[in-house]
Specification:
Layout: E1 2-5, H1 15-43, H2 49-73, E2 75-81, E3 84-89, H3 90-95, E4 108-109, E5 114-116, E6 119-124, E7 127-131, H4 139-151
Antiparallel strand pairs: 1-2, 2-3, 3-4, 5-6, 6-7
Helix pairs in contact: 1-2
């Protein structure tokens, strides 16, 4: 089993700290927006208490939800075994750091990758992933490994 970490890989950081860090910027931006709108309304003589009571929790909830969505969507590592692979998100890696002990790890067939504008596009199972060089420190080795993995089934297909 070969693992290629991305620049978004959480490393040894605990799950709770990964979630807290992911939520910090979106929540801060949402609350700054609420406070800015409230300040402008207050300077114009408009009552803002009602706005703050319902808009602040709503903005917080939306920002926190967005951060959690991003953690589940952002790739942290690609795990290769033979002609099969999987892309694990930051959420998955933070919850279960070692892919060899992950009982929920599903590997899918790797199809031949294609280079488009310096990026690598590869199908792993039914999902198409765009792999950008600036997100993957070992981009060259990853590209070669994905190409080799896709060749595992080259002789059996059509």
């Amino acid at each position: 089993m070969t693992v290629f970490p991305s620049v978004h890989h959480p490393g040894d950081t605990t799950f709770s700290l990964v979630v807290a860090r992911a939520q910090a910027q979106p929540v801060a931006l949402a609350l700054v927006a609420i406070l800015t709108v409230s300040f402008v309304a207050l300077m114009q003589g408009t009552p803002v208490l009602g706005l703050l009571v319902w808009a602040t929790p709503l903005a917080y909830a939306l920002a926190a939800a967005w951060a959690l969505y991003e953690l589940r969507r952002r790739p942290a590592e690609i795990v290769l075994r033979g002609g099969f692979a999987t892309v694990r998100s930051v959420w998955e890696v933070a919850r279960r750091p070692d892919p060899t002990t992950d009982k929920e790890l599903l590997l899918f067939r790797v199809f031949p990758p294609a280079r488009v504008d310096g990026e690598l596009t590869v199908s792993i199972g039914h999902d198409v992933h765009t792999i950008r060089p600036h997100d993957w420190p070992k981009f060259g080795k990853l590209s070669e490994a994905l190409q080799a993995a896709s060749m595992t089934f080259a002789s059996t297909s059509g």
